[in-house]
Amino acid sequence: MAHEFKFVRTVEFSETDMAGIVHFSNYCKYMESAEHRFFQSIGFSIFTSNLDPPIGWPRVHTSFDFKKPLRFEDEIEIHLLVAELRSKAITYQFRFNKLNGNDRELAATGNLTVVCVSRSDDGEMKACNIPEEITSKIEPAPAELLES
Fold it and tell me: How many CA atoms lie within 13 A of 121 on its CB side?
């Protein structure tokens, strides 16, 4: 069962502000990219129209702590850890590491909580249990990997 996912990308110019630093809003995009890739790695899409009923994953909480700036053309590793798996929600913990050769410098940490929802015929969303097809492939990361 999976409890973490990592991928590496390069900071794009359009992600930076007038000071040449990654704008804080892009960290949300980085988290979503990691979450989507994590789901793909366990054989699912974040868009789950193939499940009955189809489900969605609205965000109910996000937070960040910034340690050092990321800049244009920095190579970064986005590290997702499953911090908590509940019947209707998943909380992820993220580490954003600037890569310098074999060295990693922690640039930021973040948390994201998503809730599993289904939609009624009138479009109203309601929290529902995460399908077993998904929970059977995910587990919380070991405590020693999670930051306190």
Answer: 0
The answer to whether residues 5 and 12 touch, using CB atoms and an 8 Å cutoff, is no
CA 84 to CA 58: how far, in whole Å?
16
Work out the pLDDT band at 51, boundaries 50, 70, 90: low
The per-residue pLDDT for range 1-28, each reduced to its tens digit, is 899 999 999 999 999 999 999 999 999 9
CA distance 68 to 70: 7
DSSP β-bridge partners for residue 63 = 111
For the chain, helix, strand, coil in percent to 5 are: 20, 45, 40
Alpha-carbon distance of 94 to 15, in angstroms, equals 19
Supply the DSSP symbol for 130.
P
Contact predicate 104/97, CB 8 Å: yes
Predicted TM-score of the model (pTM): 0.92
Note whether 112 and 31 are within 8 A (CB). Answer: yes
Q: What does CATH list as the number for 4-142?
A: 3.10.129.10
